[in-house]
Design a protein that fits this description.
Elements (H helix, E strand, L loop, with lengths): L10 E7 L6 E8 L8 E8 L1 H6 L3 E8 L12 E8 L3 E10 L12 E8 L7 E3 L12 E5 L1
Parallel strand pairs: 1-9
Antiparallel strand pairs: 1-6, 2-3, 2-7, 4-5, 5-6, 7-8
Length: 146
């Protein structure tokens, strides 16, 4: 995967205590739709365990393009992530996001990010960022330990 240099920065770290061998990591960017509608996925990235292991447990800051998270709607944007695998934990640093899909009538989105390990059908190992209102270039400063 190639590295690009775009400007917005989001500082989100997540640490997962690995009780089992490293799994794939799914990163989904969601749009808040309000109380009456279900939230809508804006896109996702799946980071495969083999790619992480191939880099000796460290994926330095890289841009990852968002892929469709479902069959509806358009997708655009990318997220900048860094991963560090230790003996006991997988740390993910979400550095930034850029050019997210505008999902609101005001031309913006209200995005948040959810991380979880795959396969985990019950979503027992997941972390969720705060919601950022009216932006296509969200900035966060959060740390998670899962």
């Amino acid at each position: 995967m190639t590295s690009l240099s775009l400007s917005p920065s989001l500082s989100l770290s997540w640490c997962s205590n690995l009780s089992q061998p490293l799994q794939d990591v799914e990163v989904v960017v969601w749009e808040v739709r309000g109380k009456l509608l279900s939230d809508q996925p804006l896109g996702k990235v799946v980071l495969h365990r083999d790619a992480i292991k191939a880099e000796k447990g460290v994926l330095h800051e890289q841009w990852f393009p968002l892929l469709p998270a479902d069959t509806e709607g358009s997708v655009s944007g990318e997220v900048k992530l860094e991963l560090v695998l230790t003996e006991k934990a997988l740390k993910i640093h979400l550095v930034s996001a850029d050019n997210l899909t505008a999902a609101d009538v005001n031309g913006f989105s209200d995005p948040y990010v959810v991380f979880h390990l795959l396969p985990d059908a019950g979503a027992h190992q997941e972390a969720k960022s705060k919601i950022k209102k009216k932006t296509l270039h969200p900035k966060y400063g959060e740390k998670f330990e899962l």
